[in-house]
Structure formats: C-alpha cells, structure tokens
Amino acid sequence: xxxxxxxxxxxxxxxxxxxxxxxxxxxxxxxxxxxxxxxxxxxxxxxxxxxxxxxxxxxxxxxxxxxxxxxxxxxxxxxxxxxxxxxxxxxxxxxxxxxxxxxxxxxxxxxxxxxxxxxxxxxxxxxxxxxxxxxxxxxxxxxxxxxxxxxxxxxxxxxxxxxxxxxxxxxxxxxxxxxxxxxxxxxxxxxxxxxxxx
Length: 198
Description:
Elements: H1 2-76, E1 80-82, E2 85-89, H2 96-105, E3 109-110, H3 116-123, E4 129-134, E5 143-144, E6 169-172, E7 181-184, E8 191-197
Parallel strand pairs: 4-8
Antiparallel strand pairs: 1-2, 2-8, 3-8, 4-5, 4-6, 6-7
Transmembrane segments: 19-42
Protein name: C-type lectin domain-containing protein
GO molecular function, one term: carbohydrate binding
C-alpha cells in the first residue's frame, strides 16, 4: 500500500510540475505577444504624429527667425541687447515725463532695474540718466513704471532724501559707484534709457 501511495504521489508531483512549466510557458508567450502588440501600437502612433512634430519644429524655427530679424532691426536702430532686454539710450535730454513718453512711443518704457547685473550694465553708459522709478503717487513709496514696488535698490548714501521739494523721480547720478541712485525733481532734464523686454 505504501508503495502504491508513493508512486501515486510521484505521478501527481510530475503532473503538477508539467502544469506549472506549461503555465509558465503560456505566460511567456502571452507576455511576448503583448510586448510586440504594444511596440507596434507605439510605432504606428509615432509615425502618425511625426508630421505634427515636424510642423511644430518648423513653426518654432520660423518664430526664432522672426525674433532674430526683429532683434537685428532694433540693433540697427541703435538699441543694445542685454540679458533678454533691449535698451535705447537717448542722445538728447528731457524731463522724466517727456522721457517716459518717448519710450512709450517706441513700444518700451523707462528702464526697470531688477538685478545687480542690470544696474552695472546701465552704469556703463557713464551718464546721468533717468530710470523708471518714481514716488510721485505717494511720497516715499517708490514704484517702477510698471506699477511694481521697489524690492532691490541701489540708492546712494542718504538717498532718497527729498532734499529739494518734490524730488519724485529717480536717476543714476553717481554712475562710478554701484549705489548710484539719486532722487531729483522730475522737471530736470536728463538723458534717459528705454527698456523693451524680448
């Protein structure tokens, strides 16, 4: 009896082993079929989107070409490119308001200084110049021409001081120093710098 029972158990184990091997083989075949199907699906979707990708690339290239042409045009008109902005330095002097009006007519505005690098770049023009900063709306609340409040500043020592009545406009005065800003009356005549973001 024990011998028959042992043979029976051995046969069951072999059948179970074959079933496991067969199941594993079927799973491998199923996995391979799924991989092939998915690759074919991705390949066919890639080929259908290729013309769209090419169109996007062509469009980007056209946009870059247009930007380069626009940039070249501005540079021919005397604008200077620095750090994603164009700058125009006037050759004459005017009041702060008239200077701003000139910038607006050029599709720009008086320069807004957002960093130490930009401050040092503007100082390189080595002239007393208007910047787009004023407290005309509310005394001692300095705002840029785009309406943003002053966060980084380069005022000279003891500036702004409203030493003379109604010193509501900011200028670069002490251009040899990094902290070169001065407040002065807006009716004074200075060179000005326009800035146009690219």
